[in-house]
Amino acid sequence: MRILIVGAGAVGFHLAHHLSAAGHDIVLVDPDRERAAYAQDQLDIMTVVGNGASLAVLEQAGIAETDLLAAVTNVDEVNMIACMAAGQHNVPTKVARVSNPEYFSERFRHRNAQRGVDVMINPELECAWETFQLLQSEAASELAFFAGGRVQLLGLTVHEGAPVVGRSLAEIAAAEPDRRYLTVAIRRGDETIIPRGKDRFEPEDQVYIIGESKQMPRVLELAGYHGFKLRRVMIAGGGRTSVYLARILQDHDIDCTIIEADRTRCVELAEELEKTLILHGDATDMELLEMEGVEGLDGFVVLTGSDDTNMLSSLLAKDLGVRKVVALINKIDYIPLVGKVGIDAAVSPRMSAVNTILKYVRRGIVVSVAALRGIEAEVIEFSVEPGSRIAGHTLADIDFPKNSLVGSVIRGDDVIVPTGQLTLAHGDKVAVLALPDAVKDVEKLFQ
Amino acid sequence: MTRQQTSSTNDVIHVVGPIVAAVGVAMGISAIISLLYQGEGAVALTVSAGIAVAVGLAANKLTATPDDISIREGYIIVTVAWLSAALFGALPYWLAGFATPLDAFFESISGFTTTGASIFPDPGALPPGILFWRDMSQWLGGMGIIVLVVAVLPFLGVGGMQLFRAEVPGPTPERLRPRIRQTASILWRVYVGLTAAQVILYLLGGMSVFDAVTHAFGTMPTGGFSPRTASLGYYSAYHQYVTIFFMYLAGVNFSLHYRALHGKPRSLLEDEEWRFYTILLGVALTIVLAAHLLAGTYDSLEEVFRASAFQVVSIGTTTGFATADYVTWPAVTQVVLFFLMFVGGMAGSTGGGMKTLRLWAALKQGVVELRKHLHPRAVMVTRVGGRVVSEGIMLNILAFMLLYVASFILGALLLAVLGVDIVTAAGASAAAIGNIGPGLASVGPAENYSWMPELGKAVLCVLMLLGRLEIYTVLVLFHPEFWRR
Questions:
Q1: Shortest CA gap A105–chain B (Å)
Q2: What separation, in Å, do the N-terminal and C-terminal C-alpha atoms of chain B show?
Q3: In B113-144, where does DSSP find H-type helix?
Q4: For residue A52, how many C-alpha atoms fall within 13 Å in the half-sphere facing its CB?
Q5: Percentages of chain B per state (helix, strand, coil), in multiples of 5
Q6: N or C, which end of chain A is more exposed by having fewer CB within 10 Å?
Q7: Is the separation of the CB atoms in B25 and B49 below 8 Å?
């Protein structure tokens, strides 16, 4: 597929990186010469320097042959205009990154669709939802939903002394005959393992499980987690993501507090969020955190603009006994550190945006996709189409690449834990975990 | 063409002129009523009307048209206009020989400020023309004489907002339309419409046309002058219930009436201040009822309910009509009524007092301050009706309440110095600044103000004007900086 990306900022760059690795042809447009040059150096893509909202620049970038346009600059209006311009060349799918909530009203969306913006993606809102989902489970470091939420991918760390420690996958499978979940990957130290039946769990393993959402409480129990209910949350940093998250928490009647260092912004927040307590102060101010009863919190979320502050503040909160700490980490290099130092989960609006856009890029046989952060892997939900080569074959017969694993098969209302003897049928939805080198081969199987 | 810069004195006289003339026209109407019913007082009213119209028009014609009205001038104009209206409006009482000049002025300013405190021991004995003028002056004062002139006369384009702001009750006048004149005329139409509705309901109950109109003129502005010495106690239960209902409506923000009448009846229920106003009256009524039932003051349940509701709504909306002498009621009920004197109607209503909006906002601010003690570093805002009350407005509200209470205390103190007993002094001061009329003890609903020492009457006149013009407009004139160029 030929994909045109407008904007070579963090979202554009990572999107280009993922899509290029997945075998697509990428053209990246950005007015900043240096940024464009950097992207061209780092990635196997073509860059065009110029204004992405200009039709002439888009034509130069080959808009006529483009299958998908993703406009992801940090200016909403530029993104929308780029999509409208692409509409003149009949680009099939046009995605715009839009952050201003005013553009998300029902009427505006409708009008935008007519004008050529097929999909609007709000990174901050996506990130807020992701954070909310992570907060709801004490264990989850990663969470993604498939089949309309019936199946989920859960990433968690195995506790010392948990029931599964020291046991092999096969032993647990035998002990849990009703299970409808599967361990698809284990990260141990710097190594990522696609586990087989004989592999054993060790404490501090970062484990990825795909399975029926209903059974996840049992999974948490096995990994050593007990009763957790989200009641009180504190958010450090008062940016747009925080506002979205606070709104979601308010809607779920969860007690919410925001700490923001800028006094003027505090007043704005207090005006905007009626039920949220706004505190003026620093996210790393121990005295303030203790005064506001941080030790009694269920969740602590750090969403300031600085990764360093976020890391430090998360560690403080964890040290003070908060059960679930989620931090915004923009620097991709920092993400593997998150689990090591004891922060429960990392989020980033950029990654959320990339993830959402990936779903639209892979549309067709791909129903849904989630790029994981803790390990370099993707979970892709495929649909088995009529006339597919693999329909009617057992999983053992199908030659899945080495670095991939079928996590779950959704057939009608049933969630089936795959075994070698399972025969795939038309209409099945299959959730597959694949490491980057395997993604292309797995996609080929389903075509 | 360059226009000559006009002086402030010129501007004030020029604008106040038509207002005085308008008062004259209203007195002329009263003179006609007087002739229709019975001759007495007609001469005094006609002469007064002639003087007011002549002086008003002359003042306007002999001065140059100002090109702009400054904020400063706006305050002087409003205060001077109200004083002039009261002064010219006092003429009939004096010329007809019913009152001394001071008493006449007291009666007149009590009318225009919609207070309803009277120096006439037996109003029922006065001629119809004079009685009509009493209630007419209240009706004009309720929605604001200046607003009337702004709404009807086209000449006040500039500076209209200054005058509007200075006269309309409540911390922030709401704009229903982009232009002041449009907003003012909408409010006046609602006012006239409600008055007409009340007259019709009175007539359906068998009240005479004269009585119906004068009582409606006393109700909608939350005034309280009744042509009957026994006030509403003279009439049937039906008429009393109609009065309760319309007094209640008069205490509601007129912008809300307008919205409710224009296909948005829910805007009433959704209004936070309206809920507070209604619940507050409900709570007060419950306490008064309970006190009566415990004390066994009344025999019939309907009667005790009607008497309690009438007095609570009458005092709560600062109207001041009466069907019972609450001075003889249990002490608890009098404390409740005394408290209600300070609350008053909603902002944007014709009611006096501090206004429920201010009290509600202050209460909410109180809760915020409490929460701030729990979270010293918290940044909190106070919301009323979903909208954030800025710090500036909140300080304005709190300072208003302080000045209001300070004025009340000073007034009560001065009355006490003049030898008035403490309960009467407090009641009279609260009733005057709250534009209610009847106070406590010797100025209760069955009494009147004729016995007051002369100086005491003067003090009450100042308090009535302070209350009606919401303190700042008048007090600002006493700030030394105001007179510095």
A1: 21
A2: 26
A3: 128-143
A4: 31
A5: 70, 0, 30
A6: C
A7: yes
Q: Give the distance from CA A136 to its chain's centroid.
A: 16
- DSSP letters spanning B6-72: PPHHHHHHHHHHHHHHHHHHHHHHHHHHHHHH-STTHHHHHHHHHHHHHHHHHHHHTSPPPS---HH
* Cβ–Cβ under 8 Å, residues A246 and A256: yes
Contact A281 B376 (CB under 8 A): no
Per-residue pLDDT of chain A (447 residues; tens, 9 = 90+): 899 999 998 889 988 988 888 778 999 999 999 999 999 898 999 999 999 889 899 999 988 889 889 999 989 999 999 998 888 888 888 889 988 877 877 777 677 666 778 888 888 888 998 898 888 877 788 888 887 778 888 888 888 888 888 888 888 888 888 888 888 889 888 888 888 888 899 888 888 998 888 888 888 888 888 767 788 999 999 998 999 999 989 888 889 999 999 999 999 999 989 889 999 999 888 888 888 888 888 899 999 988 888 998 998 888 888 888 999 988 877 877 787 787 888 888 888 888 888 777 766 667 777 778 778 888 888 888 877 788 888 888 888 888 888 888 888 888 888 888 888 888 888 888 888 888 888 888 887
Helices (H), B96-127: 101-112
- The encoded tokens of residue B369 equal 């301050």
Q: Is there a contact between A370 and A355 (Cβ–Cβ < 8 Å)? A: yes
A281 touches chain B (CB under 8 A): yes
State how far the Cα of A345 lies from the Cα of A334, in Å rounded to an integer.
12
Suggest the residue from A271, A289, A294 to mutate for an interface test with chain B (most B CBs closer than 10 A): A271
Distance from CA of B393 to the nearest CA of A (A): 15
Interfacial residues of B (vs A; Cβ cutoff 8 Å): 375-381, 383, 388
Token readout for B433 is 């600044």
A274–B379 C-beta distance less than 8 A? no
The three-state secondary structure class of A400 is coil
Q: Which phi and psi (to 5°) does residue A404 adopt?
A: -145, 160
In this prediction the ipTM stands at 0.73
